[in-house]
Write a structure and sequence with these properties.
299 residues; Farnesyl Diphosphate Synthase; 2 domains; disordered C terminus
Length: 299
Protein backbone atom coordinates (compact mmCIF):
# COMPACT_ATOMS: atom_id res chain seq x y z
CA UNK A 1 0.00 0.00 0.00
CA UNK A 2 1.29 3.46 -0.91
CA UNK A 3 1.39 6.60 1.17
CA UNK A 4 -2.16 7.51 0.13
CA UNK A 5 -4.90 5.15 1.30
CA UNK A 6 -7.49 5.20 -1.48
CA UNK A 7 -9.70 2.36 -0.24
CA UNK A 8 -13.38 3.27 -0.54
CA UNK A 9 -13.90 2.67 3.17
CA UNK A 10 -10.76 4.45 4.39
CA UNK A 11 -11.12 6.85 7.31
CA UNK A 12 -13.24 7.13 10.41
CA UNK A 13 -17.06 6.93 10.26
CA UNK A 14 -18.58 10.33 9.55
CA UNK A 15 -20.39 12.19 12.32
CA UNK A 16 -24.09 13.09 11.89
CA UNK A 17 -23.03 16.71 11.32
CA UNK A 18 -20.63 15.68 8.54
CA UNK A 19 -23.33 13.53 6.95
CA UNK A 20 -25.60 16.59 6.90
CA UNK A 21 -22.88 18.81 5.39
CA UNK A 22 -22.12 16.23 2.70
CA UNK A 23 -25.81 15.89 1.83
CA UNK A 24 -26.07 19.67 1.46
CA UNK A 25 -23.00 19.78 -0.79
CA UNK A 26 -24.34 16.92 -2.95
CA UNK A 27 -27.59 18.82 -3.42
CA UNK A 28 -25.74 21.99 -4.46
CA UNK A 29 -23.53 20.14 -6.95
CA UNK A 30 -26.53 18.39 -8.49
CA UNK A 31 -28.47 21.67 -8.71
CA UNK A 32 -25.55 23.29 -10.56
CA UNK A 33 -26.19 20.88 -13.44
CA UNK A 34 -22.50 20.74 -14.34
CA UNK A 35 -20.67 18.02 -16.26
CA UNK A 36 -18.73 17.42 -13.06
CA UNK A 37 -21.82 15.95 -11.39
CA UNK A 38 -22.37 13.39 -14.15
CA UNK A 39 -18.69 12.43 -14.27
CA UNK A 40 -18.52 11.71 -10.53
CA UNK A 41 -22.02 10.28 -10.07
CA UNK A 42 -20.99 6.62 -10.44
CA UNK A 43 -18.08 6.65 -7.99
CA UNK A 44 -18.25 5.00 -4.54
CA UNK A 45 -19.86 7.38 -2.05
CA UNK A 46 -16.70 8.34 -0.06
CA UNK A 47 -14.84 9.32 -3.24
CA UNK A 48 -17.90 11.09 -4.61
CA UNK A 49 -18.34 13.09 -1.41
CA UNK A 50 -14.67 14.12 -1.45
CA UNK A 51 -14.93 15.26 -5.07
CA UNK A 52 -18.17 17.11 -4.50
CA UNK A 53 -16.50 18.94 -1.60
CA UNK A 54 -13.63 19.91 -3.92
CA UNK A 55 -16.18 21.16 -6.44
CA UNK A 56 -18.00 23.13 -3.74
CA UNK A 57 -14.73 24.79 -2.70
CA UNK A 58 -13.98 25.75 -6.30
CA UNK A 59 -17.50 27.03 -6.85
CA UNK A 60 -17.31 29.11 -3.68
CA UNK A 61 -14.11 30.94 -4.66
CA UNK A 62 -15.25 31.25 -8.29
CA UNK A 63 -18.45 32.94 -7.12
CA UNK A 64 -16.33 35.47 -5.24
CA UNK A 65 -14.32 36.34 -8.36
CA UNK A 66 -17.51 36.63 -10.43
CA UNK A 67 -19.60 38.30 -7.74
CA UNK A 68 -20.72 41.86 -7.07
CA UNK A 69 -18.01 42.88 -4.58
CA UNK A 70 -15.56 45.55 -5.70
CA UNK A 71 -11.96 44.61 -6.51
CA UNK A 72 -10.69 45.17 -2.96
CA UNK A 73 -13.61 43.26 -1.46
CA UNK A 74 -13.00 40.28 -3.73
CA UNK A 75 -9.28 40.15 -2.93
CA UNK A 76 -9.95 40.45 0.80
CA UNK A 77 -12.53 37.64 0.69
CA UNK A 78 -10.19 35.41 -1.30
CA UNK A 79 -7.47 36.11 1.29
CA UNK A 80 -9.88 34.87 3.94
CA UNK A 81 -10.22 31.66 1.97
CA UNK A 82 -6.44 31.33 1.94
CA UNK A 83 -6.63 31.39 5.73
CA UNK A 84 -9.47 28.87 5.62
CA UNK A 85 -7.17 26.55 3.66
CA UNK A 86 -4.35 27.07 6.20
CA UNK A 87 -6.78 26.25 9.01
CA UNK A 88 -8.08 23.22 7.14
CA UNK A 89 -4.59 21.75 6.86
CA UNK A 90 -4.09 22.43 10.58
CA UNK A 91 -7.21 20.29 11.21
CA UNK A 92 -9.29 23.34 12.06
CA UNK A 93 -12.34 24.42 10.10
CA UNK A 94 -15.11 26.95 10.63
CA UNK A 95 -16.76 26.56 7.23
CA UNK A 96 -18.94 23.60 6.18
CA UNK A 97 -16.95 23.06 2.98
CA UNK A 98 -13.60 22.89 4.75
CA UNK A 99 -15.12 20.61 7.40
CA UNK A 100 -16.15 18.26 4.60
CA UNK A 101 -12.67 18.46 3.05
CA UNK A 102 -10.62 17.64 6.17
CA UNK A 103 -11.30 13.87 6.02
CA UNK A 104 -10.47 13.85 2.30
CA UNK A 105 -7.09 15.48 2.98
CA UNK A 106 -6.12 12.62 5.28
CA UNK A 107 -7.62 9.86 3.15
CA UNK A 108 -6.45 10.92 -0.30
CA UNK A 109 -3.38 13.05 0.39
CA UNK A 110 -4.79 16.29 -1.01
CA UNK A 111 -2.19 19.07 -1.15
CA UNK A 112 -2.42 22.60 0.17
CA UNK A 113 -0.60 24.06 -2.84
CA UNK A 114 -3.34 22.89 -5.19
CA UNK A 115 -6.10 24.60 -3.18
CA UNK A 116 -3.99 27.77 -3.02
CA UNK A 117 -3.41 27.63 -6.78
CA UNK A 118 -7.17 27.59 -7.37
CA UNK A 119 -7.53 30.72 -5.20
CA UNK A 120 -4.67 32.39 -7.10
CA UNK A 121 -6.48 31.66 -10.38
CA UNK A 122 -9.66 33.26 -9.09
CA UNK A 123 -7.60 36.22 -7.90
CA UNK A 124 -6.39 36.74 -11.49
CA UNK A 125 -10.04 37.34 -12.42
CA UNK A 126 -10.70 39.41 -9.30
CA UNK A 127 -7.76 41.72 -10.06
CA UNK A 128 -8.75 41.88 -13.74
CA UNK A 129 -10.72 42.06 -15.82
CA UNK A 130 -8.56 39.78 -17.95
CA UNK A 131 -8.52 41.09 -21.52
CA UNK A 132 -6.44 39.38 -24.23
CA UNK A 133 -3.79 37.75 -22.00
CA UNK A 134 -0.51 36.59 -23.47
CA UNK A 135 -0.24 32.88 -24.21
CA UNK A 136 1.98 32.52 -21.15
CA UNK A 137 -0.59 34.27 -18.93
CA UNK A 138 -3.39 32.18 -20.41
CA UNK A 139 -1.48 28.96 -19.72
CA UNK A 140 -0.91 30.03 -16.10
CA UNK A 141 -4.60 30.89 -15.74
CA UNK A 142 -5.66 27.49 -17.12
CA UNK A 143 -3.23 25.73 -14.80
CA UNK A 144 -4.57 27.51 -11.74
CA UNK A 145 -8.32 27.43 -12.35
CA UNK A 146 -8.53 24.01 -14.02
CA UNK A 147 -5.38 21.86 -13.87
CA UNK A 148 -4.97 22.48 -10.13
CA UNK A 149 -8.51 21.19 -9.65
CA UNK A 150 -7.54 18.14 -11.68
CA UNK A 151 -4.49 17.54 -9.48
CA UNK A 152 -6.81 17.38 -6.48
CA UNK A 153 -9.24 15.10 -8.28
CA UNK A 154 -6.77 12.50 -9.59
CA UNK A 155 -5.67 11.81 -6.02
CA UNK A 156 -9.24 10.99 -5.07
CA UNK A 157 -9.64 8.89 -8.22
CA UNK A 158 -6.72 6.77 -7.01
CA UNK A 159 -4.05 7.91 -9.48
CA UNK A 160 -1.61 10.08 -7.44
CA UNK A 161 1.16 9.32 -9.94
CA UNK A 162 3.23 11.35 -12.41
CA UNK A 163 0.95 10.10 -15.20
CA UNK A 164 -2.10 11.17 -13.20
CA UNK A 165 -0.55 14.61 -12.73
CA UNK A 166 0.03 14.83 -16.49
CA UNK A 167 -3.61 13.99 -17.16
CA UNK A 168 -4.64 16.75 -14.73
CA UNK A 169 -2.37 19.28 -16.43
CA UNK A 170 -3.37 18.49 -20.01
CA UNK A 171 -7.07 17.82 -19.41
CA UNK A 172 -7.43 20.93 -17.26
CA UNK A 173 -5.99 23.01 -20.09
CA UNK A 174 -8.26 21.32 -22.66
CA UNK A 175 -11.41 21.83 -20.59
CA UNK A 176 -10.64 25.46 -19.79
CA UNK A 177 -9.83 26.34 -23.39
CA UNK A 178 -13.11 24.72 -24.44
CA UNK A 179 -14.92 26.74 -21.78
CA UNK A 180 -13.27 29.90 -23.10
CA UNK A 181 -14.46 29.18 -26.64
CA UNK A 182 -17.95 28.33 -25.40
CA UNK A 183 -18.25 31.53 -23.36
CA UNK A 184 -16.57 34.16 -25.57
CA UNK A 185 -19.69 36.29 -25.96
CA UNK A 186 -20.85 35.85 -22.38
CA UNK A 187 -17.41 36.81 -21.05
CA UNK A 188 -17.25 39.85 -23.36
CA UNK A 189 -20.57 40.98 -21.90
CA UNK A 190 -18.92 41.32 -18.48
CA UNK A 191 -15.76 42.92 -19.82
CA UNK A 192 -13.52 39.85 -20.10
CA UNK A 193 -11.74 38.23 -23.02
CA UNK A 194 -9.50 35.17 -22.61
CA UNK A 195 -8.46 34.83 -26.26
CA UNK A 196 -4.67 35.32 -26.41
CA UNK A 197 -3.15 38.60 -27.52
CA UNK A 198 -0.69 36.93 -29.90
CA UNK A 199 -3.49 35.29 -31.90
CA UNK A 200 -5.49 38.52 -32.01
CA UNK A 201 -2.42 40.39 -33.28
CA UNK A 202 -1.78 37.75 -35.97
CA UNK A 203 -5.21 38.51 -37.40
CA UNK A 204 -4.52 42.26 -37.22
CA UNK A 205 -7.43 42.84 -34.86
CA UNK A 206 -7.05 45.92 -32.71
CA UNK A 207 -7.00 45.03 -29.01
CA UNK A 208 -9.72 47.31 -27.67
CA UNK A 209 -12.83 46.40 -25.71
CA UNK A 210 -13.87 42.73 -25.49
CA UNK A 211 -17.14 43.42 -27.32
CA UNK A 212 -15.32 45.15 -30.19
CA UNK A 213 -12.88 42.24 -30.53
CA UNK A 214 -15.73 39.71 -30.50
CA UNK A 215 -17.43 41.66 -33.30
CA UNK A 216 -14.26 41.67 -35.44
CA UNK A 217 -14.45 40.08 -38.88
CA UNK A 218 -11.37 37.89 -38.28
CA UNK A 219 -12.45 36.57 -34.88
CA UNK A 220 -13.17 33.13 -36.36
CA UNK A 221 -9.48 32.71 -37.21
CA UNK A 222 -8.57 33.48 -33.59
CA UNK A 223 -11.05 30.96 -32.18
CA UNK A 224 -9.76 28.36 -34.66
CA UNK A 225 -6.24 28.79 -33.26
CA UNK A 226 -7.52 28.40 -29.69
CA UNK A 227 -9.50 25.36 -30.83
CA UNK A 228 -6.27 23.83 -32.16
CA UNK A 229 -4.67 24.40 -28.74
CA UNK A 230 -7.59 22.61 -27.08
CA UNK A 231 -7.41 19.69 -29.52
CA UNK A 232 -3.67 19.34 -28.88
CA UNK A 233 -4.32 19.31 -25.12
CA UNK A 234 -6.95 16.58 -25.54
CA UNK A 235 -4.46 14.52 -27.56
CA UNK A 236 -1.82 14.95 -24.82
CA UNK A 237 -4.45 13.86 -22.28
CA UNK A 238 -5.12 10.63 -24.15
CA UNK A 239 -1.41 9.83 -24.27
CA UNK A 240 -1.06 10.39 -20.52
CA UNK A 241 -4.19 8.34 -19.80
CA UNK A 242 -2.55 5.32 -21.45
CA UNK A 243 -0.17 5.10 -18.47
CA UNK A 244 -2.96 5.32 -15.85
CA UNK A 245 -5.41 2.88 -14.34
CA UNK A 246 -8.39 2.74 -16.71
CA UNK A 247 -10.78 2.07 -13.84
CA UNK A 248 -9.46 4.86 -11.61
CA UNK A 249 -9.54 7.46 -14.39
CA UNK A 250 -13.05 6.79 -15.69
CA UNK A 251 -14.33 10.12 -14.29
CA UNK A 252 -11.56 11.96 -16.14
CA UNK A 253 -12.51 10.17 -19.36
CA UNK A 254 -16.17 11.15 -18.89
CA UNK A 255 -15.21 14.80 -18.46
CA UNK A 256 -12.96 14.58 -21.50
CA UNK A 257 -15.69 13.08 -23.69
CA UNK A 258 -18.34 15.62 -22.61
CA UNK A 259 -16.07 18.55 -23.44
CA UNK A 260 -14.71 17.03 -26.63
CA UNK A 261 -18.28 16.74 -27.86
CA UNK A 262 -18.69 20.50 -27.42
CA UNK A 263 -15.36 21.17 -29.13
CA UNK A 264 -16.52 18.95 -31.99
CA UNK A 265 -19.64 21.14 -32.35
CA UNK A 266 -17.45 24.24 -32.57
CA UNK A 267 -15.19 22.66 -35.19
CA UNK A 268 -18.22 21.55 -37.22
CA UNK A 269 -19.37 25.18 -37.11
CA UNK A 270 -15.99 26.32 -38.52
CA UNK A 271 -15.08 27.74 -35.08
CA UNK A 272 -17.81 30.37 -35.24
CA UNK A 273 -19.39 31.19 -31.89
CA UNK A 274 -22.34 29.01 -30.93
CA UNK A 275 -25.47 30.37 -29.25
CA UNK A 276 -26.12 29.32 -25.66
CA UNK A 277 -28.16 26.13 -25.44
CA UNK A 278 -31.70 26.72 -24.24
CA UNK A 279 -34.96 24.82 -24.01
CA UNK A 280 -34.96 21.55 -25.95
CA UNK A 281 -31.32 21.91 -27.00
CA UNK A 282 -30.27 22.27 -23.36
CA UNK A 283 -32.36 19.24 -22.39
CA UNK A 284 -30.75 17.20 -25.18
CA UNK A 285 -27.31 18.27 -23.96
CA UNK A 286 -28.15 17.06 -20.44
CA UNK A 287 -29.30 13.71 -21.81
CA UNK A 288 -26.07 13.52 -23.80
CA UNK A 289 -24.00 14.08 -20.67
CA UNK A 290 -25.93 11.35 -18.86
CA UNK A 291 -25.41 8.93 -21.73
CA UNK A 292 -21.66 9.61 -21.81
CA UNK A 293 -21.52 9.13 -18.04
CA UNK A 294 -23.30 5.78 -18.33
CA UNK A 295 -21.24 4.66 -21.31
CA UNK A 296 -17.85 5.41 -19.79
CA UNK A 297 -18.76 5.11 -16.11
CA UNK A 298 -20.12 1.60 -16.13
CA UNK A 299 -18.05 -0.17 -18.76
Amino acid sequence: MGLVDTRPDAGEPASPELHEIRALIRTKVQAAGSSFYWAMRFLPEPKRDALFAIYAFCREVDDIADGDLNREGKILTLDRWRQQVEDMFADRASDPITRALIPAIATYGLRKKDFIAVIEGMEMDARGPIIAPTLEELDLYCDRVASAVGRLCVRVFGEPTPAGEQVATYLGRALQLTNILRDVEEDAGIGRLYLPAEYIALEKIKISTPTDIVAAERLQAVTARVGALAEHAFADTEMALASCSKKAMRPAVIMMMVYRKHLDRLRANDWKLLPAQKGLAKARASVGKLWIAIQYGLF
